[in-house]
Amino acid sequence: MTSRGPFDHFVVLAGMRTGSNFLEANLDALDGVSCHGEAFNPHFIGHKGRTEMFGISLRAREADPFALLAAIRESDRMAGFRLFHDHDPRILAQCLENRRCAKIILARNPLDSYVSLKIAAATGQWRLTDPRNRKTARPNFDAAEFEAHLHATRAFHDRLRRALQRSGQTAFHIAYDDLGDVAVLNGLAQFLGVPARLSAPSRALARQNPEPVTEKVANPGEMIRALAEIDRFELDAAAPEPERSPAVRHHLVIDAPARIFVPVPGGPTAALRDWLAALGGSPRDGLTQKAMRQFKRRHPGHRSFTVLRHPVARLWAALTRLATDPDGADRRAALAARCGLALPEPDTFAALDPAARHALMLDFVALVGRSLTGDGWPRPEPDWASQGAILQGVARFAPPDHVLREDSLATDLPILGAAPPPAPEPMPALKAFHDDAIEAAVRKVHARDYAAFGFGDWRG
Q: From residue 173, how far is each of 14, 28, 196, 267 by CA, in Å?
């Protein structure tokens, strides 16, 4: 096979009912280009009912999908296929990493694709070549179904975006409404590096449901009301934090009973270490991910847990650590010079009156807010990063079985062992200056934690 310029093959990254069949028809209409359908659909190869391609059976493809990928890539044409979020994840990862694979990202309004999917499922008509054979149906709009569809679509496109950003690649983005624009289609041909051009879009397929979306469902009023409740523009979404690692080496384990404590930085780790020691002997940490998997296999019935601390108390603990760390002089000087956070020296911090602590806490919370949104230095430290982000990082290895709260350990922890549960850490200095202003500032910075974990105002 000779080089074809920047790309050897292509992938159309799309979803069901986004116009991918029509895009495939236009790609196939280009001289020297072939699109092999949904080559890695879990139920068929290429198109419905087909179980073989390039002499490779469905079973052989499942055992080694890269053999089929190589056959497509090494054909004597610029060849590719359509790949959806629920197709073979091994192929998605390979395509995203391979710079010689041209990425074509096709998107459609998720509401339109959802309703179209419902109609196709009701009629059994997934492709239409003759408008006279159009089948119609008016399915019910289901809000829960649509939200699941919307979430899957967003998650898929977020993954594509992040993978391309991290690898410094670009893709050809095309919207459903642009599929009939021959200039856009010829721009795609130029992107692929093929000389062929179209004089007009393909006429192989006809649009199946041209009516307004409110006329396509049986319950348009219910649909409109449900859509009004969806945060379409993610106005309530906080700016994304940097991803956290699973930090498995910090997990604490004991053998009998088999318990795994997943510490959240800034939480009551010392108290839980003591509780584990009282329950089953000296806890150990430092296990690699491989060693942790081995521990779990050796201890059937193991239970893992984590403990969340109220965001106000957690940020106060973080501020106290910064201000009293005997080895933190350089850190405090950098925070003062770069962020304007004037932290007192360790020997004077304890002497601050409540008003001074109140002002310092507000300044620190503001710094945390800028840090979490990426608007300023420093990057989020583990003990002030959101607890939700930390647990998302943990879940990349394995989510904990139990997510407990520090202030309810007396009732919740006994399900994991008979040792006396620790009481919440007393914070009299915080109690002396805590007020509505502190609560509002922390709630703004850690809104997701308040909402996700049900925190109310801190009571001390």
A: 10, 18, 20, 44
Domain enclosing residue 293, as ranges: 238-460
For residues 117 and 142, is the Cβ–Cβ distance under 8 A? no
pTM above 0.70, yes or no: no
Q: State how far the Cα of 402 lies from the Cα of 393, in Å rounded to an integer.
A: 16
Residue 445 in any domain: the answer is yes
Structure-block tokens of residue 256: 């009998």
Strand order in 259-261's β-sheet?
A: 252-254, 259-261, 303-308, 402-405
From residue 164, alpha-carbon distances to 66, 322, 386 in Å are 21, 37, 26
DSSP 8-state secondary structure symbol assigned to residue 180: T
Total of domains in the chain = 2
174 neighbors 26 (Cβ within 8 angstroms): no
Co-location of 297 and 185 in the same domain:
no
Looking at the chain, how many residues does it have? 460
| 364 inside domain | yes
Q: Tens digit of pLDDT for each residue in 93-104? A: 999 999 999 999
Last residue of a domain, one of 162, 194, 228: 228
The per-residue pLDDT for range 15-46, each reduced to its tens digit, is 999 999 999 999 999 999 999 999 999 999 99
In whole angstroms, what is the distance from residue 304 CA to residue 268 CA? Answer: 16
DSSP states of 334-389:
HHHHHH---PPPHHHHTT--HHHHHHHHHHHHHHHHHHHTTSSSSPPPTTTS-HHH
Q: Which amino acid is residue 403, in one-letter code?
A: V
137 and 260 share one domain: no
141 lies in the same domain as 251: no
Interior CA angle at 111 toward 108 and 114, to 5°? Answer: 90
SS3 56: strand
Of the three residues 205, 228, 251, the one that is the final residue of a domain is 228
Q: How far apart are CA 71 and CA 118, in angstroms?
A: 34
Q: Are 115 and 41 in contact (CB under 8 A)?
A: no
Sheet of strand 172-175: strand arrangement: 33-35, 78-83, 9-13, 101-107, 172-175
Q: Yes or no: say if 144 and 160 are a contact pair by the CB < 8 Å rule.
A: no
What CATH number is attached to the domain comprising 21? 3.40.50.300
Residue 233 lies in a domain: no
Structure tokens that stand for 127 in this block: 């492709």
Q: How confident is the model at residue 4 (pLDDT cuts 50, 70, 90)?
A: low
Residue pair 347/449 in contact (Cβ under 8 Å)? The answer is no
